[in-house]
Structure formats: structure tokens, C-alpha cells
Amino acid sequence: MSAVLLIEDDDRIRLSLAMALEDEGYTAHAVATAEEGLTAQRRYRADTVLIDLMLPGMDGYECIRQMRRDDDVPIVVVSARDDTHDIVAALEAGADDYVVKPVKVKELAARLRALRRRGRSAGQPLPGTSVQTFGDLEVRPEAGEVRLGGEPVPVTRTEFRLLCELADHPGLVLSRQQLLQRVWGHEFGDERVVDVHVGRLRQKIERETGSPRHLVTVRGLGYKLQP
Question: In which residue ranges does the UniProt entry place its DNA-binding region annotation (predicted)?
């Protein structure tokens, strides 16, 4: 049974969402503050973390940053805020996904299942050749490594899977919706999630982010890895 840590300060939402997740087959541990959430995650090591942004004391952004320092657990923001700035800031802090309230529990449960599948496969070989080369960029799906100019590049689990998906289709354009489905497991979703992760990847694998040579945008269509 998968364990979910829920960090939500609204008592009504916290209780109802925890009960709904348990009805979907999850074990839910719910807390009201970011500080309690950090302590709970160190103690219980949940499989997935759901977090609101506007929390008393430490806010959700800082909680995500602190959790990311020593834990690669999938983090999903559940917030009433749907402004682009808030979504980008949460993903930049280290969140993997973003869901806008009011929450549709069936949709949320589907996203959690997708994250769990990705988590189980994170330590397993990914499809593709042992080394995929794009100039000075090397993607090694089976070793779980990315190298630039021979030096290792630290990437998150989501960034790695995004890069592997693009590397498996060298020179071919993948739309944001295709990437959402293949990397995040969403049939539908906010395409800004893809854009932010692409931007984070470029900061790590491009010599000049303003003139990317590897991870290229094809305007109006999507993204591709340039052979």
C-alpha cells in the first residue's frame, strides 16, 4: 500500500482529502504545517508528498526546497493558486507536479499512480542504447547518468526521464502534451509543467541557455534533442 504525506493547513480540506485518498487505497499521514511535514517525512518516508503553498510559518516553497536537499520523493503541489508565477516558482523549488484546487480525487489518484510507477522504475534500466550522444552531451539511460563534456550532470528524477524521452526520439519534435503523457503519465494537464522542467534542464546541459544547441524549441510544436 502506497503512503502519502499530506501537508495542508485547512482542517476541512486536510481531513476530507486524507479520507478520500484512503478510499483510493492509500495510507495518508496528514499534518497542518511545513515544519511538521519535514519531521514526518524524515520519520515515515512517504512514497509521495502533497503540499499546499500557503501554510502558517514556513511556506510551501521553502518546505519543498528543504525537503529536496536530501530526498527525491515525488512532490505534488495542491494549491488554489493558478497563476503562472506560482506554478513556476513551485516547480523551480523542486516540485514534480502541480494540481489546482478544488481537487478531483480520481484525477489526483491517477497522477499519484503515475508518479509511483515512475518511482518504481527509477532504479531500473530504461529503454534505449547504453549511451546516446548529442555532441558533448551524453545520456546513459541504463546507468541513470547524464554527462556534459565528460563531466556528470546532476539532474532530478523527473528531469532525467524527460531527457531520456527526448533522447529516444533524436531530432523528432515531441509536443508538450506528448511529454506530459509519457513522462508525467497525464492524459491532460498544464503544459507549463513541461516548460519549467525544460528550462531547468537547459540550465544544466546548455553552455548558453539563450542559444540552446541540444534541447531545442520548435515554435508552435514542442521540443526536440538536436542530433
Answer: 129-227
Residue type, 96: D
How many residues can be counted in the chain?
227
CA distances from 218 to 74, 138, 144, 225 (A): 29, 22, 27, 10
Domains of the chain (ranges; CATH) run 3-121 (3.40.50.2300), 132-225 (1.10.10.10)
User: What ranges in the chain are assigned the alpha helix state H?
Assistant: 11-23, 34-44, 60-68, 84-93, 105-121, 157-167, 176-179, 192-205
Q: Which three cell numbers stand for residue 144?
A: 541513470
Strand order in the sheet with 97-100: 27-31, 3-7, 48-51, 75-79, 97-100
Low-confidence ranges of the chain (pLDDT < 70): 117-129, 187-188
Please give the angle made by the CA atoms of 220, 223 and 225, to the nearest 5 degrees.
150
Q: How many CB atoms lie within 10 A of CB 125?
A: 11
Beta bridge partners of 132: 139
Write down the pTM of the prediction. Answer: 0.78
Q: The dihedral of CA 1, 15, 96, 99: what is its sign?
A: positive
Instruction: Write the pLDDT tens digit of every residue in 164-181.
Output: 999 999 999 999 999 998
